[in-house]
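[step 3/7] fold_predict: job queued, chain A
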Amino acid sequence: MIGAEAFAHVEDTRFRLLLSFWLGARERRPVPPAGAIDPVRFAFALPLVWLCSVEENPRDFRYELLGEHVRVAYDHYPRNRTLREITGPDVLDRVLGYFNRAVDEPAVVHVAGRIYAESTRPARGERILLPFADPQDGRVTRILGATVHSWEIQGYGTASVPDRQVRTFTPVDGRPAWTEDWL
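[step 4/7] structure written:
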């Protein structure tokens, strides 16, 4: 299984603390149980956090919770809406691709650089996706994520928006992580 050393590339301190919560919630399993999601344990990150349930046939991700820092990225509050409903068709495959990796590998997904890249108002930022599983069958049923961006100065700063987005996939079973970038 992976440990904290696998996440040296994660920049934001709040994300490192969120990763510590996730690593500690695993209870000797590669993926922590969905019941371990306890907002009290990551209250420091609530404005940055979002939570999706994983739906099947077809695969989609339904937003159950969005912190205020994340919500400002949308012109409407996307609670109870799916990733397919809020993501443009021209970029849906790319975004679903990295969400699906969190479920199918399963893997921790870290995105840095250009955030909300498909938006008319992209930002500089960082995002993390943490899988949580059904304790009975081990299938990933929830994604706890967090996003920090430069639109509101929440400890991230207002430097220019990068041209690229770097995604790092860290499989939970300890296989080597890999990265890809997108222009």
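[step 5/7] annotate
The chain is about 20% helix and 30% strand.
Residues 62 and 82 are 4 Å apart (CA to CA).
exit 0
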